[in-house]
Amino acid sequence: MKISLLISILLCLVLTQADPLPNYIKPCKITDEQCIIENGNLAWQKLIFGDKDFQIPVLTPVFELNEVKVDLNPNFFLHHTNIKMNSAKSYTIRGAKYKSDENKLAFTLFNPLNDVDSLYEIKLIDFLGKDINGKGTFKLDIINANYTFDVYLKTITKESVDYLNVDKTTFDFLPEKISFKFANLFDGDVTKGEDANLHIENHWREFYEEVRTSYSAVMANLVKGIFDSFLNKIPKTELFLN
Q1: Is the peptide bond before 61 cis (omega within 30 degrees of 0)?
Q2: Do the beta carbons of residue 68 and residue 135 sit within 8 Å?
Q3: Which of 4, 6, 97, 208 has its Cβ near the most Cβ atoms within 10 Å?
């Protein structure tokens, strides 16, 4: 019994011990926008190569996701699998503002070209006058996009030490242009497939609005995971200067 109690105490100490701030993250005042932008961009160029201590996966040259489903509209079904995101290195932070009334960090980013490859299955009923279906390979190019994500924070106390915790995240993106390319539509019917791809290209904004919520939700979860990895282990006073 005494040995079990000792082991339990040691485990609690190990699990609650704070981790040191990694050397690629330089603390800023939470209200210092320019500091967060500059140091955030420097940190990102290190972070994309992964950090095992904080369970951050390698994000470059390719970051892989299992699946994304777009099925909010009963007439619009799109299922991506074997997703490969190829452009993590190209993101730059352009804005970082702390809003104290909401306890929120609001970031804006830019990426000139975010390209994604995947397998897909699609079934659209009357998408602006056309039914479209098929399965095969897919390529997505998001061109000159501004990305916004908000991180809502709360303070939690562990072993008398204050940590920040992510309450929720929101994510959105506004592109200059998006290219959606579906191979093997209509079981490989080349003429019908080319016609459908041209239809989507001519109405890319409407197509984007259909996928926007689902794509953004996936990115919001990714952002939350990265922030949680650090915030849960590093005390608040080490991350942000007084």
Answers
A1: yes
A2: no
A3: 208
Domain 26-241 = CATH 3.40.1180.10? no
Question: Tokens representing 87?
Answer: 């452009």
Could you read off the pLDDT of 86-141 as tens digits, one per residue? 999 999 999 999 999 999 999 999 999 999 999 999 999 999 999 999 999 999 99
Q: Please state, in angstroms and rounded to a whole number, the distance separating the CA atoms of residues 34 and 40.
A: 10
Answer whether the bond into residue 20 is a cis peptide, omega within 30°. Answer: no
- Cβ 16 vs Cβ 159: under 8 Å: yes
Q: H/E element holding 209? A: helix 204-231
Looking at residue 3, its pLDDT comes to: 44
d(CA 142, CA 87): 10
Helix axes 190-202, 204-231, angle to 10 degrees: 70
What would the two tokens of residue 185 be?
Answer: 């539509």
Residues of the chain with pLDDT under 50: 1-16
**How far, in Å, CA of 97 to CA of 9, rounded?**
41
